[in-house]
Design a protein that fits this description.
- Belongs to the glycosyl hydrolase 43 family.
- It comes from Flavobacterium gawalongense.
- There is one protein chain.
- The strands form eleven sheets. This protein has a five-stranded mixed β-sheet. A five-stranded mixed β-sheet has the order 22-23-26-25-24.
- A hairpin with a 6-residue loop joins strand 16 and strand 17.
- With 728 residues, the chain is mostly beta strands.
- The chain has three domains: 297 residues, Glycosyl hydrolase domain, family 43 (Tachylectin-2, Chain A, 5 Propeller); 86 residues, Immunoglobulin-like (Sandwich), CATH 2.60.40; 275 residues, Glycosyl hydrolase domain, family 43 (Tachylectin-2, Chain A), CATH 2.115.10.
């Protein structure tokens, strides 16, 4: 056992065996401590970096009134030039602290550029400010500064805490030496906060002997709570507690993150005028943050649905600030375009707000039924900022003029439009929609891929219901790979469903993709819950297929014969007849029936006026040119005839609608009235996201029409969508 491990074990055992462990000093507070505790904070400053490219490895600021809704300052650009404060040219993991005097601020960052490798940095940067605007800095290379660190590989995620007993600022961070795991060390900063007073000492190591990184210490109820990320035997965020700041931390052996996805960078802050705390962490494989709330630092509740950010942070921290400080930050780095983009009324489809800074216009897309005769966009209010008018206005006859004023800057007048757009039909990011009408409930249901995850890495499926194809209700998660599926835990994609009546009972057969295989789950209700069959239905490429993936199922029950078919494939289109149980296929019926070389994926089949229609998506879902084509057959097994003009739907670049594809089709019961349900890139953000737009998609519905010969007319994708339909 190495020396560090013996020392850590001794400290842990010493604390466990001592009922009278030393408590933090209860002597009278110094004047500087009194000032800090009396600082009246009303807002929040979030400091963060944004990614692994060199221009993203820099300190950025965002501001919030409530600790839930954050807006980036300085257009989400760095507030300090990384090259001027670091050895490597980049900085990460910023931590910010208010000093004991209440008016001095301390920030520490990892001095690192990830492109040089995760074992490439030896330094941290210390920064100091009296106004949050102007910062002095110094670099500390641990390997050069202190002997005995010849095999030091990395210096990660420093943070600062004030030691009231020592009256000094303690910096703590993780380091990895040679083949040893990452261990959390500490040292006191000098009086000027430009250097460390002495060589680092061990603060804590993981008892599992795995890596121990990203420490964050919070003092509550007479104890120091050290949040950290552990790796090795399991990975995630744990807490160790001690009555002393610099020793004796005892592990609470449970993970506190509220997700099964990998996480790092835990940050805890106390809400103003509240006994509640926020624990946030970086869900780095999903490109998002998760926020949780707690009162006791033991039980945590996810509050993601209450949190908004107009930026994508990586490992950062939040500092409560005063109104005066918030006003100063806004005056320096606030901008009218961002202020006018904070419209927060519940009627607004927030991810569809378009801001044109050049022409000073804002276009708000509002939900069905919004009263535009008296509508208030409800712009967020920040110290030093005014937006007028601030009362309901009449948008029914056209746009309304608003004036945004930031203290210290010239007022700006903006033209604000508001329109009821029915596309997208679902609130949030979803893709690959399949739709049915349920005879059992008399409602429509959409079953999409849960989108918005980097690399299509979602792991659960939802359902949505509607009486009229316009107003949709979230029916919540109906199948979760982690909880409900034993044979695959990743890549929950592209489901489809059918309703089948057996006697007086309705059954719902739900076919879905997981880990590039196709499974099937069953329920008695269209909104679930669904029970997985226990194994993959399709787990290998059919004979004759060259390349491609076993994804994108579509189930079709032939109204002429009653036979059921499953279609699937990426790069090829396969078909097989389903057995009567609907959860197995007749292997001998598997057939490759790829229509032509435009076929990529997303087959869907329907029957109209004696003809079988086959629709599929061309190109890549990350491409703005993703589109839908079709063919016609006299049989569900082909051959498929392809009309000369067989385009069903494609992008409308002028309208900003891109990446239209992977569709399903629905007929209004009892009518020759048809609609196409498809996904597109998120509007307007998807137009600027590059390939990432391909996993930030949203679901839309437009009308599908036919000519007199039964050919499908090309559908023009719209923002307006369709009107609510009336069922008989």
């Amino acid at each position: 056992m190495n020396t560090c491990k013996w020392v850590g074990l001794f400290l842990a055992l010493n604390t466990l065996g001592s009922v009278t462990a030393q408590q933090p000093s209860k002597k009278k507070s110094s004047k500087s401590e009194i000032k800090a505790s009396n600082t009246k904070t009303t807002a929040y400053l979030f400091t963060y970096f944004t990614g692994n490219s060199k221009d993203e490895e820099a300190i950025r600021f965002a501001i919030s009134n409530d600790g839930y809704n954050f807006r980036a300052l300085n257009n989400n650009k760095p507030i300090i030039n990384s090259a001027e404060i670091s050895e490597t040219g980049g900085v990460r993991d910023p931590h910010i602290l208010r000093g004991a005097d209440g008016k001095t601020f301390y920030m520490v960052v990892t001095d690192m550029v990830s492109a040089k490798g995760w074992d490439s940095n030896r330094a941290m940067t210390l920064l100091k400010s009296s106004d949050l605007i102007h910062w002095t800095s110094s670099k500390i290379n641990i390997q050069k500064r202190f002997p005995g660190n010849e095999d030091l590989l990395r210096v990660w995620a420093p943070q600062t805490i004030y030691d009231a007993k020592a009256k000094k600022y303690m910096i703590y961070w993780s380091m990895k030496n040679g083949k040893n795991p990452d261990i959390i060390y500490y040292a006191y900063a000098n009086k000027d906060f430009t250097d460390l007073e002495a060589a680092p000492k061990q603060l804590f190591f993981s008892p599992t002997n795995g890596s121990c990184i990203d420490g964050d210490i919070i003092f509550k109820d007479g104890k120091y709570h050290l949040f950290f990320k552990t790796e090795g035997e399991g990975a995630g965020i744990k807490i160790a507690t001690s009555g002393k700041l610099t020793e004796g931390y005892v592990l609470q052996d449970k993970y506190v993150q509220q997700t099964k996805d990998p996480v790092e960078g835990a940050g805890v802050f106390k809400l103003n005028n509240s006994e509640e705390y926020i624990l946030m962490y970086d869900v780095y494989t999903k490109g998002k943050y998760q926020f949780t709330k707690t009162k006791d630092l033991k039980n945590f509740t996810v509050i993601d649905q209450e949190v908004t950010m107009n930026f994508h942070p990586r490992h950062g921290t939040v500092l409560p600030i005063t109104s005066e400080e918030a006003e100063r930050l806004q005056s320096k780095w606030g901008n009218a375009a961002d202020v006018i983009g904070t419209a927060n009324a519940k009627e607004i489809k927030k991810i569809n707000t378009k801001i044109d800074a050049e022409n000073k216009t804002v276009s708000l897309s509002v939900k069905p039924g919004t009263n535009l005769n008296a509508f208030n966009p409800s712009f967020l209010s920040f110290p030093g900022i005014q937006v007028k008018p601030n009362t309901p206005q009449n948008f029914s006859n056209g746009p309304v003029q608003y004036t945004s004023t930031i203290k210290g800057q010239s007022p700006q007048t903006w033209t604000v439009y508001a329109a009821e757009n029915h596309n997208p039909v679902l609130e949030g990011l979803y893709a690959d929609p399949d739709i049915i009408f349920s005879e059992k409930t008399g409602k429509f249901y959409i079953y999409p891929t849960s989108d918005g995850f980097d690399g299509w890495s979602g792991t659960y499926f939802k359902a949505f219901s509607s009486p009229d194809l316009v107003n949709w209700k979230d029916e919540n998660v109906i199948l979760d790979l982690h909880k409900d599926v034993s044979w695959a835990k990743k890549n929950a994609w592209a489901p489809c469903i059918t309703e089948k009546k057996i006697g007086d009972t309705y059954k719902y057969l739900y076919y879905f993709c997981a880990a590039q295989k196709i499974g099937v789950a069953v329920s008695d209700n269209p909104a679930g819950p669904f029970m997985d069959s226990g194994k993959a239905l399709i787990d290998k490429r059919p004979e004759g297929a060259k390349g491609g993936q076993q994804i994108d199922p579509d189930v079709f029950i032939d109204p002429q014969t009653g036979k059921s078919y499953l279609y699937w494939g990426n790069g090829y289109m396969a078909c097989a007849e389903l057995n009567d149980d609907m959860i197995s296929i007749k292997e001998e019926t598997i057939k490759i029936m790829t229509p032509d070389n435009t076929f990529r994926e997303g087959a869907t089949v329907f029957f109209r006026n004696g003809k079988y229609y086959f629709l599929w998506s061309e190109d890549d879902t990350r491409s703005e040119n993703y589109k839908v084509r079709y063919g016609i057959s006299n049989s569900p097994l082909g051959p498929i005839q392809i009309p000369e003009n067989n385009l069903v739907i494609a992008k409308d670049k002028e309208a900003g609608i891109l990446g239209t594809g992977h569709n399903s089709v629905i007929q209004v019961p009892g009518k020759d009235e048809w609609y196409i349900v498809y996904h597109r890139f998120n509007y307007p953000k998807g137009n600027t996201m590059g390939e990432a737009a391909g996993y930030n998609r949203e679901v839309c519905i437009d009308k599908l029409e036919f000519d007199n010969e039964g050919n499908i007319k090309e559908t023009k994708p719209t923002h307006q969508g369709i009107k609510a339909i009336q069922l008989k």
